[in-house]
Design goal:
This protein has 34 helices and 29 strands. By secondary structure, the protein is an alpha+beta fold.
Length: 950
């Protein structure tokens, strides 16, 4: 009896265990059963992201910091019998999450480089290498070189069709039944926008598929309402979680953007290079890293160290228990030497003065021949501004055809379509002609269209195989250089040489005659460029030039597209002709409602640097224009990025550290130092300026020519910036050691270079940003001695130079960094001044140079009214065919220098404009005028059109 009871109890226990095991094995989620293995416990080590360090200005204000945010993550933990089931399930989850986000004003996050443009077509948001990198990621290739030709050339529309197919993500499958769709919460049809987003999210999830239990972020910085809704329904969405995160926030954009840079998702190349830099594999595909500026320069300092959490999960990824945790270590904080007030003021002053130069030099001309005048007399035709409205993205070409386009936009776009068709009709007629037109005989507009089609469109499609073209071929030379060949003859020859693949236009090319092939080609190209905004810009530009699109209409479009705030009186005045387009545009430039950088003309940019002469600390380092780095960090605004990349004013190009030009007459102080220390001049020895230096061939005019300065000492030569005087010094340096009585160019150049090196022109300044390598002139001692020749320096390099002059001859490296601290505030690096070199100059000689700089300021028409005793030197660097560059260097106060300054207005006409800019900046620094007097918010009215260049 007892034995039977014992056996019965054992049976009950056994089956009880089996039942409990079965209950644990079967999880009921969202009404569906998922099989799991309770016995299988997998130890999973997850990363706990560290907090990126902050960046502070010299006053302790935050410039770059992290703001708490909540992200939505998704981890595919399902087990599926078929790809169809997997696609339906995941797409259903994503769609339902999207609806929750939409209802609370949020959206999903994706850095997918395809968008639906204003015309309702799929288009890439990246170009060049970045587009190739995107395609490599999509197709699972580690390097862009691994892409096949078909993958490299795939269009945005074809990529979406490929990824949306049943073979891949199953978003665009037409044969789903209503029951299948309803079972996972999908509608009977998806909008194009939702379909694109689901494909983008699936692609992001797929990027992490090689790492089991790794989540993908599908929404960033969501609202409290979305967070609450998702947390409440978290159990219904397998693999979905809401996690704490942070977003990078930048203050003082655009004033600080080129210094700070921005962060973004790490690339495959960056993973490799950064892991190599730190000597271990700490970076992976989930990291956010610095992409430019200080964010990139100090990446390994700011990044911190991720923590780890070890947990046990089942085969669905559900956490069963926690094991251990190592807390993350926050990145280090960086404190800068930059004074935020100086930085912002300098940016505004640059903008005001550049706008003032544009305002003064723009006339109501359609065109202007710059070859018939000196660079001082170059005029900006107002039509160049009209052309820039489309060419430089002030007006959006894609919005012209958008569904919400204004009536005026629709009217202009309809005419644009007619014009585009006319272009291809004319092109087709020429290709079908027995006597086609040579390229050189085409109209200017048609040359632009043909050049774009052959250099961009056809290579992009693959019709012309750029890599196969023999550029040394005689027939190619006729096309490219002599321009004596017609497009028809060039294409015919290209086909015969296998430089072209016409099968991309028609598969029946071997059965067609040439006229049918060229007819098909024109039709194909006309259809293809409809989605090419760059080609459209060219069409709109010539519509303006050909008086088909009126300038007044362009100005009204500025209101229609929201570029300018609607003003009914101005709008109607432009329409009825009572306000001219010329007056309207100039007024908007004057009021800075239209910024000078938007037109990307000459001038449109500049830079200004302020340092401490006795330390090398940089107090301001400004490049104009800047950009909004908040739109590039976190969830990058791809359209904005693409606009910046193509902007003719080059906002990513740091004019303070990367732009090299001749220093002009600011370099004459190097020549003065060399002349005095090598003994070829004395302080008081006069040199007689005749107005033209004729001891070299060709002769060099002094800026005062046809006048003359007469006899000048060193101090008065610096004051007057006499070219003749410093040409003479250069020639005398070439006479040193001469046994034949002649001056030798290489000797004079070597002596100038010796002292230029002492002033730091031999190397970069040490500033913690990308910096171009300076170039000391290596030929032509006479022009080099006055700052021309092959001298080429950046504004920061001129700032280091004038700092050396100010402190009496010690050349410091420049730095933006005051100190670096750890997350607890402990100082781990305190920057000390670093001496780069010493200038071999005695006190008497340096005092004479200082005196000359001081007299220059006191006797300058544009500087003598400044309310502080200071020293300075102007410079005008000439460049063929464009307005000269305007430069100024100086320091203040004269007897006890606290700041050194260097500024350049690229294509700023002459040094007077840079002098006025520097004067107002010094007034701001020393509180000599009120901020409101200086930062007026309108174009500077004091700019000059005078012809003096020194």
């Amino acid at each position: 009896m007892h034995a039977r009871i014992t056996i019965l109890m054992m049976i009950v226990v056994f089956f009880g265990f089996i039942l409990m095991r079965r209950l644990f094995d079967l999880q009921i989620i969202n009404g569906e059963s998922y099989q799991t293995d309770f016995a299988m416990q997998i130890r999973k080590e997850t990363s706990i992201p560290s907090t990126r360090g902050c960046i502070y200005d010299s006053k302790g204000n935050l410039l770059a910091y992290n703001q708490l945010a909540y992200d939505v993550t998704f981890q595919d933990v399902g087990s599926y019998e078929t790809t169809r089931e997997k696609n339906l399930t995941i797409n259903g989850y994503l769609y339902k999450i999207m609806q929750i986000l939409y209802s609370n004003g949020d959206d999903v996050y994706t850095d997918f480089a395809v968008k639906i443009n204003d015309a309702g077509e799929y288009a890439y948001t990246k170009s060049g290498f970045q587009l190739l990198r995107f395609k490599a990621d999509v197709f699972g290739e580690p390097y862009t070189d691994d892409l096949t030709p078909a993958q490299r050339e795939i269009s945005a529309a074809d990529m979406i069709r490929t990824l949306g197919s049943e073979k891949n993500y199953g978003v665009l499958v037409p044969d789903y039944t209503d029951e299948e769709l309803a079972s996972v919460g999908l509608p009977s049809s998806l909008s194009d926008t939702d379909a694109l987003k689901i494909i983008a999210l699936r692609n992001a999830i797929n990027q992490n598929s090689y790492q089991k239990y790794v989540s993908t972020t599908i929404a960033k910085d969501i609202s409290d309402q979305s967070m609450s809704s998702l947390m409440e329904s978290k159990g219904y969405y397998v693999g979905v979680d809401v996690v704490e995160s942070s977003i990078r926030v930048y203050t003082n954009s655009p004033y600080m953007s080129n210094i700070l840079g921005y962060t973004g998702r790490i690339s495959a190349e960056e993973i490799e290079s950064l892991n190599k830099e730190v000597g271990q594999n700490v970076y992976d595909a989930t990291d956010i890293v610095g992409k430019s500026g200080l964010e990139q320069y100090f990446e390994t300092q700011l990044q911190g160290v991720d923590g780890t959490k070890s947990v046990y999960v089942n085969n669905l990824g559900k956490i069963l228990k926690e094991d251990s945790q190592v807390d993350p270590q926050a990145g280090n904080d960086i404190y800068l030497t930059i004074n935020p007030d100086y930085q912002e003021a300098a940016y505004h002053l640059l903008e005001q003065y550049i706008a003032g130069i544009l305002y003064q030099h723009t006339l109501d001309y359609k065109e202007f021949d710059t070859t018939q005048v000196s660079v001082d007399e170059i005029i900006i035709p107002v039509y160049d501004m009209y052309y820039a409205m489309f060419e430089n993205n002030i007006l959006s070409v894609t919005h012209m055809e958008a569904s919400d386009a204004s009536a005026l936009e629709q009217e202009v776009y309809a005419d644009f379509q007619k014009k585009e068709h006319e272009i291809f009709s004319e092109l087709k007629a020429d290709l079908l002609s027995d006597t086609p037109t040579a390229y050189k005989d085409l109209s200017d507009a048609m040359k632009v269209y043909v050049n774009y089609l052959t250099e961009t469109t056809m290579p992009e499609i693959g019709i012309l195989k750029s890599e196969a073209i023999d550029t040394t071929d005689a027939t190619y030379q006729q096309w490219a250089n002599e321009e004596s060949l017609s497009l028809k003859d060039y294409l015919t020859y290209a086909i015969s040489q296998d430089w072209a693949d016409i099968t991309l236009v028609t598969s029946d090319s071997e059965f067609l005659d040439s006229s049918e092939i060229y007819s098909s080609l024109c039709d194909y190209l006309e259809e293809y460029v409809k989605s090419d905004s760059n080609f459209s810009k060219k069409v709109y530009r010539y519509m303006v030039e050909e008086d088909r699109l009126a300038p007044s209409t362009l100005c009204r479009l500025l209101f229609d597209q929201g570029i300018l705030e609607m003003d009914g009186d101005s709008y109607n005045g432009l329409k009825d002709g009572s306000i001219s387009a010329y007056d309207f545009v100039l007024n908007k430039i004057y009021t800075l409602e239209l910024k000078p950088y938007q037109f990307a003309l000459a001038p449109c940019s500049g830079s200004l640097v302020v340092t401490e002469p006795n330390t090398g600390n940089v107090l301001a380092c400004v490049t104009y224009p800047g950009y909004d780095n908040n739109r590039l960090a976190n969830d990058m605004d791809e359209e904005y990025f693409a606009q910046l990349v193509t902007d003719g004013s080059s906002p990513f190009y740091n004019k303070a550290t990367q732009e090299l030009t001749a220093p002009g007459s600011t370099y004459k102080l190097v020549t003065a130092t060399a002349g005095l220390m090598e003994g070829v001049i004395t302080v008081d020895e006069p040199i007689y300026c005749t107005g033209k230096f004729e001891d070299v061939d060709p002769p060099i005019n002094c800026w005062i020519n046809p006048g003359q300065h007469g006899p000048l000492s060193l101090v008065s030569a610096i004051q007057e910036s006499c070219n003749y005087y410093f040409n003479s010094v250069g020639l005398r340096l070439g006479n040193l050691g001469s046994t034949d009585g002649d001056s030798h160019d290489e000797v004079g150049i070597a002596k100038l270079a010796k002292y230029a090196t002492m002033y730091g022109f031999d190397q970069e300044t040490g500033i913690e940003m990308d910096e171009s390598t300076p170039h000391i002139s290596d030929n032509a001692m006479a022009p080099s001695a006055m700052g021309q020749g092959r001298n080429a320096f950046a504004t920061v390099q001129l700032a280091r130079y004038v700092g050396s002059l100010a402190n009496g001859g010690t050349t410091y490296d420049l730095t933006l960094v005051d100190k670096i601290t750890d997350s607890e505030g402990r100082t781990i690096l305190e920057k000390e001044p670093v001496v780069h070199d010493y200038v071999d100059v005695n006190e008497y000689s340096m005092n004479a140079i200082h005196n000359g700089m001081n007299q220059m300021v006191k006797n300058s028409t544009y500087l003598k009214d400044i309310e502080i005793d200071m020293a300075g030197k102007t410079g005008t660097a000439e460049e063929t065919g464009v307005p000269s560059h305007a430069l100024f260097i100086g320091y203040a106060p004269y007897d006890n220098p606290q700041i050194a300054i260097a500024c350049r207005i690229t294509n700023g006409y002459n040094s007077a404009n840079a002098s006025l800019l520097a004067k107002d900046m010094i007034r701001y620094i020393f509180n000599l005028r009120s901020k409101d007097e200086l930062i007026t918010g309108v174009a500077a009215s004091g700019t000059t059109t005078g012809a003096r260049t020194d």
